[in-house]
Amino acid sequence: MAIKHFSSADINGFADRQRARFINSLSGFKSANLVATIDEQGITNLAMISSVFHIGASPALVGMIIRPTAVQPPAKNTLKKANINDADNKAVPRNTLANIKRTGVYTINHVSADIYQQAHQTSARYDDAISEFDAVGLTETYIDGVAAPFVQQSQLKFSLSVREITPLTINNTILVIGEVSHVLVDNIAVKDDGYIDIESINTAAVSGLDSYHTTTRLSRLSYAKVDRPVQALDI
Amino acid sequence: MAIKHFSSADINGFADRQRARFINSLSGFKSANLVATIDEQGITNLAMISSVFHIGASPALVGMIIRPTAVQPPAKNTLKKANINDADNKAVPRNTLANIKRTGVYTINHVSADIYQQAHQTSARYDDAISEFDAVGLTETYIDGVAAPFVQQSQLKFSLSVREITPLTINNTILVIGEVSHVLVDNIAVKDDGYIDIESINTAAVSGLDSYHTTTRLSRLSYAKVDRPVQALDI
Lengths: 235, 235
Fold this sequence. Notes:
The structure is a homodimer. Chain A has about 240 residues and is α+β, with helices and mostly antiparallel strands.
């Protein structure tokens, strides 16, 4: 392979969208999720997000990075900047953060290969009065005790109670941490040891800003020990 | 599909490792990376980590969650707790955080299908005097101006200068944010528009605590607009 070396000066010389696509590719494969919320008027909101990540199992905590600037409509003299933000993070949850702050609850819904185009389409700038559920053709479903909607078509989905909303002052993004309250999952995917075979339910992965992927398992591997090689595990 | 509903009471009733595997599966597919550092004595450290995520493109910021408690050898009466932490996050960067604090620099190296077993093996508890590079058979490589080693076998790797180290008091994990300084990548993967085709260089994805996957692209999708359907893009 021919390894190419890009310095920070090279990267700063990229056009804005080129740099956004390049840097968004560096972290590796990302999770593909839809965040669903509801406001006081009962208008639901659905936002594609690729920055959901595990924080801890006990308590069960999940984090996500939200870029809130796109909530404000861009003024004329900030239009270019707004576009850069879009390119940087296509999954702009316009009302997601506001709804989470008001209601304290949200759901995260896996995006499968069956719904990835609809999920991507939620990142268009729909008017506040329009629910992305309706706009893209996905279906709301509810359970007792959780105000926020779930995505019926999602095969693994969970509700969270917000625990911390932390501004990352370094670039004006927001880290939202929630505690898992209910998990709804296709039962065939849940293994006896607790592992959920998300490949078997066609959960997608994301690379860069706009590429969606299915997966093929290499192997599960045994817990690593100093004195023995890793072993492949049965699923 | 038969959707099963797990309440938080159900999940709290799981055995510790079962709960760790279950909760670690919820966020979706995760990035597969090796974090490499060096200490003042020149001893290198290499740690598998599945919590690297994109924070912003301009400046180019990448985050990761580190669980530092495993740095301390467990006292007898905390052994059970230490094991829970291991199960919760197999990728325990024992000396990673200390080295980052001391040197200010680290590298993140994509784990490909070719090296995923070696990458997984770095999470065994090697003695501090042993470099995981040597222990698992991966090769250090260096560039001018970056003290930390890169993994020669990795086809996409980048160095970072640490910008923020933020304790998440909610569960005693640490959010480490770094700014990208140099990127080394197989040039065939870098597309004209900035997108890096990480699938073409066999970058792996992780699910749960221990499952590794390759990917198959569904499609790149056009920037979503309210007034038109999404289109598949050429790679």
